[in-house]
Specification:
This is NAD(P)-dependent alcohol dehydrogenase. Belongs to the zinc-containing alcohol dehydrogenase family. The chain is an alpha/beta fold and about 350 residues long. The protein folds into two domains: about 5-140 and about 305-350, Alpha-Beta Complex (Quinone Oxidoreductase, Chain A, domain 1), CATH 3.90.180; about 165-285, Rossmann fold (3-Layer(aba) Sandwich). It has eleven helices and 19 strands. The relative contact order is 0.14.
Length: about 350
């Protein structure tokens, strides 16, 4: 690491609504890790929630924390146990470190590891900084056909993959998805790639319905049209809205599957709607073994992510990226840790 700087710039959450840029030591990779110069980082709703509230459930910000967990970059150094040939590779980061020895890890469900260290989940620092480390096998090489932004968004793509897998989506299925934001649109694309022939996105926002339609997904306004009784094979909630979840449960066929991705706290459940129709209601928590699938979906063009990026910010502008200050029609915001500021945040203007 002699040619690398000793310090780096990092955007640090010190308290609720208090973010500053600090100088931090460049991390040294452990024997099984790689050091990555960060290229792109997506802004997730969890980052915004920590900024606004300082906690998500049991995860409480008690000390300064670097946010950001949707990340891509380039390997610039490796630990003693990693092949030096990896230096220079462009990679997408699976932002977690399971213990690998507990019952969950050994059974393959490492997302449920009780000792998981996950980027930007207190007290683990995230990727709104110039350099990060991750275990070698959680840094996935990407081809040149995948942009830095799309590589970063392989993290929310992995959420969509996990949801579709949990729903058991197959060839010829009808899938209903509540929520036309990034997760909903990504999940809809994944469901189609997995063989679903009718993918329906329900959202009250016309702009988000337009976005979903632009990706070839069928759309519906729940304010004017009900999906109850549509006999869908599966329903995936990406809205967190209680009415959407209640309606979604009533929209699946007997024996159908309901997957909860959104963050509703509590919802009323009708025993008759679930037990008497043998509807399976489940959820997902992060993902396992999804990055190779995500890479293939992007490389083959079955999923497209770059058009979801609407605004780009530099490291000095993380607070604006979190709040969306001054933006209209914001969908997916990206931070570039390698630059201080981006004069024109709205990338749609540059696309023409």
């Amino acid at each position: 690491m002699s040619s690398l700087p000793e310090t780096m710039r990092a955007s640090v959450l010190r308290a609720v609504g208090d973010i500053v840029v600090e100088e931090r030591p460049v991390p040294t990779p452990a024997a099984d890790e790689v050091l990555i110069q960060v290229a792109s980082v997506g802004v997730c709703g969890s980052d915004v929630h920590y900024y606004e509230h300082g906690a998500i459930g049991p995860y409480v910000v008690k000390s300064p924390l670097i946010l950001g967990h949707e990340a891509s970059g380039r390997i610039v150094a490796v630990g003693s146990g990693v092949d030096p040939a990896r230096i220079g590779q462009r990679v997408a980061i699976e932002p977690q470190r399971p213990c690998r020895v507990c019952d969950h890890c050994r059974s393959g469900a490492y997302n449920l590891c009780p000792r998981m260290e996950f980027y930007a989940t207190p007290p683990i620092d995230g990727a709104f900084c110039e350099y990060v480390t991750i275990q070698d096998d959680f840094a996935f090489e990407i081809p040149d056909s995948i942009s830095d932004h799309a590589a970063a968004l392989m993290e929310p793509l992995s959420v969509g993959i996990a949801a579709v897998q949990k729903a058991g989506v197959g060839i010829g299925d009808t899938v209903l998805i509540a929520g036309g934001g990034p997760i909903g649109v990504i999940t809809g694309q994944v469901a189609r790639a997995f063989g679903a022939t009718d993918v329906l996105i329900s959202d009250i926002d016309p702009a988000r319905r337009d976005l979903a339609a632009s990706h070839g997904l069928r759309v519906i306004d729940p304010a004017t049209t009900s999906t109850e009784g549509m006999d869908a094979h599966s329903f995936i909630d990406a809205s967190g809205a209680t009415p959407a979840i209640v309606t979604g449960i009533r929209s699946v066929r007997p024996g159908g599957v309901v997957v909860l991705v959104g963050s509703a706290d509590e919802i009323p459940l009708s025993v008759a709607d679930i037990a008497m129709r043998e509807v399976v209601v489940t959820g997902i928590f992060r993902y396992t073994n999804t990055w190779p699938i995500a890479r293939t979906l992007l490389a083959t063009g079955k999923v497209e992510l770059d058009s979801l990026v609407t605004h780009v910010y530099g490291l000095d502008e993380v607070e604006a990226a979190l709040t969306g200050e001054g933006t209209t029609g914001s969908l997916k915001r990206i931070v570039l840790p390698g630059v201080a500021s981006v004069p024109e945040h709205d990338v749609r203007a540059r696309r023409g």
